[in-house]
């Protein structure tokens, strides 16, 4: 296990996608985003470089021999690689799924460069349609927030139904808060985090506009309720920084 909080990939092309004024359009995980994604997520998501190595730790603790482990919405493969290094030599099958061909292409490249013997099955598929079976660890790392809210319960129910007793779902999300004052404070702090990482007010504003119809955050209580309705228990937050959290949801043994 690598005990580090360094970025999962060396910083590649700098994220300047929203540096110039442009017409509003919805955010897409296309080739332009894939090129700058390591820099974008490092500078946009507080705690990301802590969450990734901890996914390795959690996988090591809860992966069951002979089971499947899934990274749903794997993007460039940061959490996939973390899971890979956390899996014991126990015949586990590791599967990464993403519906962006540009992301899967770069993910395949990163996996090929990683010095680890465990094979990784990559699928360029919609996570709402991909087959999930006999799982012990599943990761949704800032993925569920991009799924239409009406389709989230069915996805979580499928994951819970396919998870072995004692298995776990790792769910990382941007959340919103029930109290307006708390929402305002947490949003402002998040924007200050971005400014501290070199983003301009124009970049922050334009990206927020591009995401507002695509990334739909929910409250922590809403996540807990739906996870329990899906069949998980003992839903707990293990990490939070501003309006970003990561949770563990367990399948009853």
TrEMBL record:
Residues binding S-adenosyl-L-methionine: 48, 73-75, 98-99, 126-127, 141, 208
CDD domains per record: AdoMet_MTases (cd02440)
Top EC class, one word: transferase
GO molecular function per UniProt: carboxyl- or carbamoyltransferase activity; methyltransferase activity; S-adenosyl-L-methionine binding
Catalytic activity: prephenate + S-adenosyl-L-methionine = carboxy-S-adenosyl-L-methionine + 3-phenylpyruvate + H2O
GO biological process, one term: tRNA wobble uridine modification
Entry EC no(s): 2.1.3.-
Ranges for domain Methyltransferase: 71-167
Pfam family name, one: Methyltransf_25
Coiled coil location: none
Keywords: Methyltransferase, S-adenosyl-L-methionine, Transferase
Keyword Cell wall biogenesis/degradation part of the UniProt annotation: no
Protein family: Belongs to the class I-like SAM-binding methyltransferase superfamily. Cx-SAM synthase family.
Subunit record text: Homodimer.
Biological function: Catalyzes the conversion of S-adenosyl-L-methionine (SAM) to carboxy-S-adenosyl-L-methionine (Cx-SAM).
Protein name: Carboxy-S-adenosyl-L-methionine synthase
Gene name as annotated: cmoA
């Amino acid at each position: 296990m690598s005990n580090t909080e360094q970025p999962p990939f060396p910083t590649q092309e700098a994220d300047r996608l929203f540096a110039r004024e442009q017409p509003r359009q919805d955010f897409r995980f296309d080739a332009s985003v894939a090129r700058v994604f390591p820099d974008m997520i490092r500078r946009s998501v507080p705690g990301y470089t802590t969450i990734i190595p901890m996914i390795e730790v959690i996988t090591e603790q809860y992966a069951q021999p002979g089971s499947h482990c899934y990274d749903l919405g794997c993007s460039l493969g940061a959490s996939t690689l973390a899971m890979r290094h956390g899996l014991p030599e126990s015949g586990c099958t590791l599967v990464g799924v993403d519906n962006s061909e540009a992301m899967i292409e770069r993910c395949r490249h990163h996996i090929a460069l990683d010095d680890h013997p465990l094979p990784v099955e990559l699928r360029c598929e919609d996570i709402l349609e991909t087959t999930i079976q006999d799982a012990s660890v599943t990761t949704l790392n800032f993925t569920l927030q991009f799924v239409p809210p009406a389709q989230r319960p069915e996805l979580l129910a499928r994951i819970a139904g396919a998870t072995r007793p004692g298995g776990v779902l790792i769910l990382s999300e941007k959340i919103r808060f029930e109290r307006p004052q708390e929402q305002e404070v947490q949003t402002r702090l998040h924007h200050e985090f971005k400014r501290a990482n070199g983003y301009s007010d124009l970049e922050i504003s334009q990206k927020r506009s591009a995401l507002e119809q695509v990334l739909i955050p929910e409250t922590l209580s809403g996540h807990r309720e739906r996870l329990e309705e899906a069949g998980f228990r003992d839903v707990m937050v293990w990490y939070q920084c501003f309006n970003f959290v990561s949770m563990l949801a367990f399948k009853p043994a």
